[in-house]
Amino acid sequence: MPLRINDSAPNFTAETTQGNINFHDWVGEGWAILFSHPKDFTPVCTAELGYMAKLAPEFAKRNTKVIGLSVDSMQLTAKHKVATPVNWKQGDDVIIAGSVSDAEAKEKYPEGWKAVKPYLRVVKQPGS
């Protein structure tokens, strides 16, 4: 479903640098700008994210929030059911999604994982 300017975006939940959000609740009564970039940690994408972060106060004056989505962090999550912590870099450990049971994790990650907390299971990045 393509989105156009002024369309209502579908609701979603996401782990962000601001914590877990429910998109519609996060936006509230204001406006939001969704933007995406194709790859994490490239000079261009990093510059784009930094530039938008610098503009956040100007958007806030206009009751608008900005959220950037990375096609890579989304593909990794969709394919391997993992999440990436803040400041994550390609090849760093990832977190097994909370929606994955220990039984499913044992099948998916037979080499095991490190349980930092019962709900926080860390594993090597799949495919690295």
Write up this protein.
This protein is α+β, with helices and mostly antiparallel strands. It folds into two domains: 13-71, 3-Layer(aba) Sandwich (Glutaredoxin); 81-123, Antioxidant, Horf6, Chain A, domain2 (Antioxidant, Horf6, Chain A, domain 2). The protein contains four helices and eight strands; from the N terminus they run ββαβαβαββαββ. It has helices at residues 23-27, 43-61, 71-80, 102-108; strands spanning 13-16, 19-22, 31-37, 64-70, 82-83, 94-96, 114-117, 120-123. It has a four-stranded antiparallel sheet. A two-stranded antiparallel sheet has the order 1-2. The longest helix has 19 residues, at 43-61.
CATH superfamily of the largest domain: Glutaredoxin
* Mean pLDDT across residues: 84
Largest sheet: 4 strands, antiparallel
CATH topology of the largest domain: Glutaredoxin
Outline, from the CA principal axes? elongated
Low-confidence blocks of residues: none
Q: How far apart lie the N and C ends? A: 32 Å
Q: Work out the number of β strands.
A: 8
CATH class of the largest domain: Alpha Beta
Query: How many whole angstroms does the radius of gyration measure?
Result: 17 Å
Number of domains: 2
Strand-and-helix sequence, N→C? EEHEHEHEEHEE
Provide a brief overview of the structure:
This protein has 128 residues and is an alpha+beta fold.
